[in-house]
Structure formats: structure tokens, C-alpha cells
């Protein structure tokens, strides 16, 4: 499937060509990219552990941006955003709120992945009036079983990737069978489509601080997710080694009226392995 780079009105429709912009809030300058038609409720993308603006899969972003205003941003202290990375998910949610309100937005939809899903949960619990619809993928709740083990899994897979001269995401996000390996290679190739105006990579200290925040999230008191009353879509692969797939079921049980999609024979990056199916499901959910 191919998409128009831009329309005659100058609207950018592909993530590869979205310019990097910045906005300052509470002394922090946030880097972000936006694309798609203006005027409707924007879909703000909350990114994963160690990720910058360059880590969003265009095969997910571009279909959504054909009919929705999409905004992706770097968390504080990550990529081209200034400041220091917070060591709690709740503080990251406060930063996200500062960024969103600095853009003058008072109603948004959220599409989140992994750590981004944790930040999104904290945000909607604190500012329920801000969010119209919520998409949580590859993520889990505060106090979720084995979330505090993410660091160990991450370092192990980074080592495996280093020994094979591969991208760590091929191990962290995808199964190591033939289908998973092919999906991982294709995913990494798509991330490399953008050749100009690339983002800065996350620093080691920032990465370690994010891992510390995830460990705290996994060990903290569970939140009352019955307070999340906005329409919610939950998605994951059936073999998520980073944030166990069972936690997606847990979210589904605890968020009333939520929808759950589990993709077969896939891992943490199930939404990227099944990007056609996921993008269609996400668009249908947003348009309902």
C-alpha cells in the first residue's frame, strides 16, 4: 500500500516526510512531528522504551495519517527534547500533559506502545477530560506481574543482537522463528526509510533512567483502572517477552468496555508484525 506524500493544500501525509518541530513548555523544549489533515481530534503517539521520533513504524503511522491529524513527540530528555528523563512514569505523564497543552490541545486520542502505554494510563487517570479514545499496545498496568523484569530481558536481548550484529528490536519485539525474523527485518528496514532530518539517539543515562521508571511502575501499587471510562482498544502479540501478554488480558478485564486484540505467533511488536491488520483496527476504532 502506498500513500500520498502530501496534498495540494500542503498537508504532509507520510511520516517519512514530516518535518521536525519544537514547542517549549515549563522550560523544556519538546521535539515533535505532525502529519495528516488538521481540524479533527489529533491522535498523539506515545513511544516505547529507548525510542525517539525515528522509532515509529510508518506502516502504522501513514494509514492513520491519511484521515487523522497525527502527532508524535520525544519525551523529556530523549532525542531532540531537552531536559533530563524522569525516573517515574507519573512524571513522564506530567511532561506529556505539558507538551499537549503547550500545543493548545484540549481533547486528544492516544495511540501508545509499551512504556508509552504506561505513560498513557497515568495521563488518562490524572486528566480524564483530555482523552477521547485510548489505544494501549504491548503494555501493562502499574504493579503488573514481571514488568519489573523488563530490564533483564532488555539487556539480554541487546547482548544477543550485538553478537549477531542485529538491531536489538529484532529480538525484543519479534519471535525468533522464520515469520518473526522476517517481520523483524522488515520492521527495521521501514524505520530506516527516513534519510534526512533524523532524530538524535537516546543516551545511555536516559535509557537507564527509563528502565528504572519501568521497574518502579512494575513494583508500585496497582491503580484503580475502573476509573478509565474512555473507549479503550488493547492490542498485543500472544508471546510478548517484554511485557507479558497476560497483562493485556489483565488490562482488558479491568477497563470496562475495552476491546482486546491478540495477534497470533507474534511478540512484543505484534502490532508491527501485523501492521496492516492493526492499522485497520485502529482506524475503525478511532472512527466509531
UniProtKB/TrEMBL annotation:
One MF annotation (Gene Ontology) recorded for this entry: hydrolase activity
Gene3D superfamilies given in the database record: alpha/beta hydrolase (3.40.50.1820)
Domain of life of the organism encoding this protein: Bacteria
Residues of the AB hydrolase-1 domain: 43-272
Keywords of the record: Hydrolase
Name this protein carries in UniProt: Alpha/beta hydrolase
Origin species: Mycobacterium hippophais
